[in-house]
Amino acid sequence: MNAILDQIADAYTPLLLAISLGVATVKWMSGRRWFWLRLLASALLVYGVMFTDNRWHWWPAVGLDYSTHTAAALALAIFIGIGLGTRAVWILLGTSLLAYGELMFYLGYHTWLDMGATAAVIGAGLCLIYRAPLHHLYRHRA
């Protein structure tokens, strides 16, 4: 049973990534070509914090473990939610993130405190990313 649950856990982030790339493509085709920059900035945040933690051991210093899985899933879910923007999508994303967290906890990947601390730090960074007027950085030349 745990082998199946492992496969489900392993498939969650790639599924979110595939959906995110679809959302980015739709935004690109509808003229919001700068929207993909938020996905790139989110990836830099998630993996930048991971590399920083690997270097300076901030999470272990307080008895925690940085959850790259949580960070990536949260960043992708926020990207999808903002890109699609319907209440039903937000409810589905929130529910799936909580279920994913419970699955990671059940499988022993991370504690809820690991995931919560990671989500708080990444969430704060994502707030900055989505408040930034990135559309001014992209200038389409005809």
What does this structure look like?
- The protein has 142 residues and is an all-alpha fold.
- Helix content is 77%, strand content 0%.
- It is built from 6 helices and no strands.
- The chain has helices at residues 2-29, 36-56, 58-61, 68-84, 87-106, 112-131.
- Helix 2 (36-56) packs across helix 6 (112-131).
- The model has no long low-confidence stretch (mean pLDDT 93).
Q: Strand pairing plus helix content: what structural class?
A: mainly alpha
Q: What's the gyration radius in Å? A: 16 Å
Query: What can be said about the biggest beta sheet?
Result: none
Number of domains: 1
DSSP helix count? 6
How widely separated are the two ends? Answer: 55 Å
In round numbers, the mean pLDDT is 93
Count of DSSP strands: 0
Determine the fraction of residues in helical runs and give it as a percent range: over 70%
- What proportion strand? under 5%
Give the overall shape.
Answer: globular
Q: Which secondary structure elements does this structure contain, and how are they paired or packed?
A:
Elements: H1 2-29, H2 36-56, H3 58-61, H4 68-84, H5 87-106, H6 112-131
Defining traits:
142 residues, mainly alpha, 6 helices, 0% strand
